[in-house]
Amino acid sequence: MTHEQAPIDTTRMSIPKKIAARAAELREQLHRHAYQYYVLDDPLIPDAEYDRMMRELQALEAEYPALRTPDSPTQRVGGESLDAFEQVIHRVPMLSLDNALDEEEFRHFDRRVRERLKYDGPIDYTAEPKLDGLAINLRYQDGVLVQAGTRGDGVHGENVTANVRTIAAIPLRLFGEGYPDLLEVRGEIFMPRQGFEALNERVLKAGGKPFANPRNAAAGSLRQLDPKITARRPLSFYAYGWGEMSVERLADGYRDSLRHLASWGVPVSSEMRAVPGVDACLAYFADIGARRGALPYEIDGVVVKVDSLDEQERLGFVSRAPRWAIAWKFPPREELTIVEAVEFQVGRTGAVTPVARLKPVEVGGVTVSNATLHNIGEVWRKDVRAGDTVFVRRAGDVIPEIVRVVLDRRPPDARPVELPRYCPVCGSDVILPEGEAIARCTGGLYCPAQRKEALIHFASRKAMDIDGLGEKLVDQLVEKGLARNPADLYRLTLEQLIGLERMGGKSARNLLAALERSKSTTLERFLYALGIREVGEATAKGLARRFGSLEAIEQADEEALQQTPDIGPIVAAHIAGFFRQQHNREIIQRLTDEAGIHWPDVEKPDADNLPLVGKTFVITGKLSQPRDHFKTLLEAAGAKVSGSVSKKTDYLLAGEDAGSKLVKAQTLGVTIISEAELPALLGDR
Ligand code: IVH
Which end of the chain has the smaller Cβ count within 10 Å, N or C? Predict the structure, then answer.
């Protein structure tokens, strides 16, 4: 069966024969030349000639859109954006590999293979580089790429066909003849080193965060919902296997099967070799290890496979990995360098994290100049100090980390790292409550690093409920300098708002009205809106009930705070730390005095007088609000809320469509109440 010409289909009937033939010819030529260029690295025509043919085909397709088939080379530029990826099912599961981490483990693999095959001579193995990218399944129907799916859990992957079509090395249509009607090609999508470096340079120039390694870059590029973005990423592909096929086999051995794939235009690694027996494997491993840095792509080891498919069948699988293959990994890359400084960064949520600034060093082909230290405890545990010589590793090739300090080389004046007392961004106190790993800036309302997060939280539904003030708007307000803290929101004017993107007169007026409405609130909502670390709705409610007024909470010390239900030493430290900051208190004062945020007095109930102390509730069925809302209300009134109905249950709060819990409560004689009956029990008027 040959596929030199596109099959005629009825949608093309209105296209003049000559035009259809010319389009088919151009498609064919462009496929051939792309293969010569991207796969064989051996172009036969000048780039300009290729571009000319591409433009001619684009022009024909523009005039006769029915010519624009999914396998047309013009489709490499990327089509429509998706909202989400659909699922693909791999009928032949995509497996993973067992690892060998050193020679001994590799020899163990070989021994097991020989034992199982009851054969004592050298096994005919095939070795290839283990590419550091992500696995893909390419489904060809009658030679045309119809679907590309990621590995996912091995059976359910993501349909990334539109993105994969943009990868020039992947044939949209197979060449030659003899391929099965249905052929699933499996292999690795990866980003060659050069392309990776160029991409990171681009990202850095645009002010973005660079990818940690080529694998992340490849995965990130493939998982773009907009194929046009993938199209701009320098991705490539090598095949290392197959999945579902309409034939039993392509050949008797693995290498020969891959040679068939190669003859149809599928890229196969030029480093694939026959390696008979362990010694040949060891030599291959050493050789490719020595050339690793010079290869145009990142590899993290070698994959060794039993070549004979009969033998593969006899060996079979254990759970998710075949017994006939092994990934022999290179040892993690470690290099020595010097810590120039340990600095602290403040995250969006106020986490103060140490980062080691390193003398730049190349680790496994990537220049490393920073290493995260996660938290201050780790700095102390590893005893990393400025001036130290350290081992840096890119393990699993994620973010570089400091493995250990070379103490012999420590300069005599190297001082232990101290947690800064004040936030390096805003100058507020930094606290590290006992038992916590992460130190935090307490200037939540004021700190520029936390500005956006603070505003988004303040406006959110369960906080001040400022309708229309979402993340995008907060971004704009902060970037234009119109809001640095929540109090600034109440100074916004109609003119300022109308000047913003996507903000017409109507939405601006609506927002101002929502801000106005939000001024009338409750103490617990206001407390929650302040975004104090660990103070969720329930804690805010507890505080409001226990202290009755904002002033009382501001003045409470940690011990007094701990008298509130659910507040232990850590939460108390966060609350007290927050109110100690003059900056925060000033903003709170502006919110109440200047903006006029107010709330009704809170009746301060005596703890023993809570109406539902000692009562156990279970909540079931559909209610007007999420269950957590009712749980918070009940707990604040002293009740316990349990997940299942038992003899100890006092009340079942049942909404619509209540099921088995309702039946059980009825059998046990538990009092059943509806949402409407709740206020009376809570003692609300
Ligand atoms: S064979 C049934 N060969 O490594 C065996 N995998 O750790 C299926 N990989 O998911 C895999 N290079 O993404 C094979 N030459 C190679 C490979 C390779 C990279 C990846 C692949 C697989 C993972 C397993």
Answer: C
Known catalytic residue at 452: no
Task: Answer whether 101 contacts ligand 1 (Cβ < 6 A).
Answer: no
Pairing type for strands 325-329 and 299-306 reads: antiparallel
Residue 161 has what pLDDT? 94
Output the CATH code of domain 607-682: 3.40.50.10190
Q: What is the pLDDT of residue 1?
A: 41
Annotated catalytic residue, options 17, 18, 118, 130: 130
Name which of 289, 287, 311 is nearest 300 in CA terms.
Answer: 289
Fold of 430-594: DNA polymerase; domain 1 (1.10.150)
Domain 10-75 has CATH 1.10.287.610: yes
Q: Which atom of ligand 1 is nearest to the CA of 321?
A: 2
Report the C-alpha gap between 556 and 538 in whole angstroms: 18
Mean pLDDT split into 10-residue runs, the chain, 685 residues: 46 77 92 83 82 90 86 78 85 92 94 95 97 95 95 92 93 93 98 89 72 84 88 93 97 98 96 97 94 88 97 91 94 86 92 94 82 87 94 70 90 95 95 89 93 95 94 92 95 94 92 96 96 93 92 92 86 95 95 96 68 88 87 81 90 91 92 91 69
CA of 141 to the centre of ligand 1 (A): 24
Q: Determine the residue type at 677.
A: E
Ligand 1 atom with minimal separation from the 322 CA: 2
The two tokens of residue 503 are: 């903000």
Q: Which residues, including other chains, have CB under 8 Å from residue 109's CB and lie 6 or more apart?
A: 98, 100, 304, 326
Exposure of 629 by Cβ count < 10 A (0-12 exposed, 13-18 middle, 19+ buried)? Answer: middle
